[in-house]
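Readers outside the structure-tokenisation community will struggle with the description of the input data as it stands. For illustration, here is how one protein appears when written out as sequence plus structure tokens:
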Amino acid sequence: MAVAGAALPMAALAAPVTVSVTAQGETVPVGTAAADAADDPAIWRNPRQPLRSLIVATDKKAGLYVYGLDGKARDFSPDGRLNNVDLIGMGRRGVIVVASDRNDEAAARLRLYRLDTRRAKLVPLGTVSGGAGEAYGVCLMRVGARLHAFSVLKDGTVAQVSITLGQGKPRGRIVRQLKLETQPEGCVVDQRSRRLYVGEEDRGIWAFDAQATASRRGRLVAAVDGAQLVADVEGLALAPQGRRGGWLIASSQGDNAYALFRLPGMKPAGRFRIAAGRLGSTEETDGIAFHPGAFGPRYHAGLFVAQDGDNAPAAQNFKLVSWADVLAALRR
């Protein structure tokens, strides 16, 4: 099993400017109170009726929620310790949701659902193996009619799982394993370049070729430096623009901020925080998600969703932010 490649040299950086935005919406709190429970969101955009778009998100102590843009819970699957979640359109197979299942810490599972977008319901499909160890992160890539899931384990292993979606239960086969030295979690795939980004919490963001036949060697493309990126590195999301451009967004959990890196070269491109407005600020964010396109007047240039680790006096929840507000604050 190959270990990720050499790190970038640490550089003495001037403290970057961190701008502030406020949330335009929020979800109702998760059902698990007085605990670190809310964790990771994913977004489905309704192309015909954007205001009827949905957010799928985890209560990592209890299961998986579906929320509307109004923040109200539309569905809940009480499947226990589901840590991270991602979703992807698979053509006639529908919108497939995959969550990392850590109910058995010795045997990671990937739990699959079909998102019934009309009824805002999760339809269980079954589970496949996510590798030997404790499940943590997950992200998805479509390869023709085949679904590939990257199952990120707490020990630093990333198992690439090829999943067949048939009439019966899904079948999974681990086709490649990557390895980081310490604990990772967040990951995201750029479908345009077939590049996988994985956040190693204490070290930074790694890039790998996401193709199953490619080298298992990765490259550290954004190091934890205490300025642009402050440990822990948590959730990752992509804000694509054109054929190669846009931004990779990372939860810089150590200073309650979000770091942007310009694609494809991963040059630092600004930082922002969700400040205390009428809906409160965000702290200690784990998972994040972004989706481009219009989601109605509040989110006309894209939607960013972030887990809020301190939503006191209520339980943790997820905050909704207008991407137009972020770009305006950064003067992009």
Notes: The radius of gyration is 18 Å.
